[in-house]
Amino acid sequence: MKFWNQNLKNLSPYVPGEQPKNITQIIKLNSNENPYPPSEKIFTCTNELTRTSLSTYPDSSCSQLKNDLSERYQVPVSQIFCGNGSDEILSLIFRSFLAPEDLILIPYPNYTLYETLAQSYGIPYRSVQSDNQFMISFKKLAEGNSKAIFFSNPNAPTGRFYAIEQIAEFCHSYSGLFILDEAYIDFGGESGIKLLSELDNLIVIRTFSKSFSLAGLRLGYAFSSPSIIEGLKRMKDSYNLSYLTQLLGSIAIQEYDYMTQNAKIIIQDRTYLTQKMEVLGFTVINSYANFIFVTHPKYSAKKLFSSLKEEGIFIRYFDQPRLTDYLRITIGKRADLDILLSSIQKIMRSYQ
Ligand SMILES: Cc1ncc(COP(=O)(O)O)c(C=O)c1O
Predict the structure, then answer these.
(1) Contacts with 243 (C-beta within 8 Å, 6 or more apart), sequence order
(2) What is the whole-number distance in angstroms between the Cα of residue 197 and the centre of ligand 1?
(3) What is the DSSP string of 138-164?
(4) DSSP 8-class letter at 236
């Protein structure tokens, strides 16, 4: 630690969901990945590779990918930014727009990377607690003189969704930056994209990791005002996205219908799992995402998590304030959800 700076010394590192090695023998419902593979067309892309496409540097402004995003979402290219996962975009927002004299607000619970990034860049932050139903009060977010608010909608890890009208009303009277993280928006709820024409303090962030089944690719994108996008472009590394990432991203957008079909199945299976879990006595928060957040009045979440892990079923337990009674379960394929359900029943019987 001899060479560590103060921010690094204070940093509690982001803890991702476990990535077990023996992927075929386990059921992995712990990282909100998509259980369906990417579109077949993704795997034909090698036909488009030329010798020079890999021996020369990629397009630093991701022109084709941005054109495709622009056409799909009807947002001008000057209002689009592409990054190495939405995590890189979040990191660039800290580096570009925030300073140690600023205060940022982070509703709790939330995607924990926001806090990790605030610590690593030395930006003071305050958690804004949700109520006991995990709903955030916009009144509370208006308090204090904050420079930015990081807001996932649907929320991670609860799956709660806030109406876009509510967000619009808040942003109109807020003078800071509102970062609307829509990592899970393809699984439910309405996007804030349509608010871009009326707000210059809104950044909408999206990812290919969840609905497009491309978590391994590392590709995220953001929509905002031309001035904010220009700031991110200046701050980024010259070649932040490889040639392959840009190419595969464009193919995934062409295959938009394949993505929405899978999202539809996941939404149906979310309803299925919710109903089955409720029959088992769990309280399930109404989710708009590709996961559910559940608690049981009788059985310890931590014990259930460990017992399922012993059976080769990985779900997510958060050892964090107010979350220790809860489990987050990613919506996998129906057959895997059925195995999960029978394992939970077996574990519950063994406790009696
Ligand atoms: C709310 C939220 N935002 C962003 C991300 C990260 O997305 P990416 O894979 O694009 O970095 C996650 C990942 O779990 C998430 O839950």
Answers:
(1) 53, 54, 58, 59
(2) 25
(3) HHHHHSS--SEEEEESS-TTT-----H
(4) S
Q: Ligand 1 in contact with 249 (CB < 6 A)?
A: no
Q: Show the tokens assigned to 32.
A: 């909100």
Tell me how long the chain is.
352
205 lines ligand 1 (CB under 6 A): no
Q: pLDDT of the chain along its 352 residues, tens only?
A: 888 888 888 888 877 777 776 666 899 999 999 999 999 999 987 777 777 788 899 999 999 999 999 999 999 999 999 999 999 999 999 999 999 999 999 999 999 999 999 999 999 999 999 999 999 999 999 998 999 999 999 999 999 999 999 999 999 999 999 999 999 999 999 999 999 999 999 999 999 999 999 999 999 999 999 999 999 999 999 999 999 999 999 999 999 999 999 999 999 999 999 999 999 999 999 999 999 999 999 999 999 999 999 999 999 999 999 999 999 999 999 999 999 999 999 999 998 7
Could you tell me the CA-to-CA distances from 165 to 170, 188, 205, 259 in Å, in that order?
A: 9, 16, 18, 26
Ligand 1 atom with the smallest distance to the CA of 86 is 10
Please list the residues that pair with 150 across neighbouring strands: 179
State phi, psi for 326 to the nearest 5 degrees.
-115, 155
Beta strand 104-108 pairing with 148-152: parallel
CB environment 85-96: b (16+ within 10 A), e (fewer): bbbbbbbbbbee
Measured from the CB, is residue 224 less than 6 Å from ligand 1?
A: no
**CB atoms inside a 10 Å sphere around CB 16:** 10
Distance between Cα 86 and ligand 1 center (Å):
6
The long-range contacts involving 120-123, CB below 8 angstroms and separated by at least 24 positions, are 120/7, 120/8, 120/11, 120/94, 121/7, 121/94, 121/95, 122/6, 122/7, 123/94, 123/98, 123/99
Distance, CA 148 to ligand 1 centroid (Å)? 18
List CB contacts of 276: < 8 A, sequence separation 6 or more.
337, 341
CB of residue 32 inside a 6 A radius of ligand 1? yes
